């Protein structure tokens, strides 16, 4: 939500969000949001990262937690949020590179997953996303996954939960070679010539990074998703 992570900057962002007309507003922390990471704020020991309580208003903050959003017509969506990213520098909500912070952390009835980290090989930067998160997506199969952190991955794609996707991940990780590639081609041909429920087993993936380019000077528009 912020660049510097101070309480004042966070409050300014919350005040702006509360002025927006949307029915529901759900946020998680990112690696710059120092004041929301109690351990990091204590380490820094600076008053700008501690002190007065934040006024959240109608904004729902998720940190390893879920909320259920209700809409007209009896429609509801369960949203789960998790803030961590791999350690790089001295930022908030970080974990060591080989640590698994995602496996079996997300309930199977979650409709929308919000993480700061991207999954590996999907709207990340050259496979720098988290492989454990990718496997958790295969298990839970949410309708929508929103993330950011790696600004160059901005955009949308559909993550299929099928054998084609598994072969793709194995090839990208160097675990499979020509045979897996041939299997992918065969599966692709099958999908083109047969009518299946293929689209029902997909997650809409959105890298919502709002800035990018040199020194993050580019400002990206908000993305709209229809579920």
From TrEMBL:
GO-annotated molecular function: hydrolase activity
Residues forming coiled coils: none
Domain Calcineurin-like phosphoesterase, chain residue ranges per copy: 5-152
Domain of life: Eukaryota
Family matches, as InterPro entries: Calcineurin-like_PHP (IPR004843), Metallo-depent_PP-like (IPR029052), UPF0046_metallophosphoest (IPR051693)
Protein name: Calcineurin-like phosphoesterase domain-containing protein
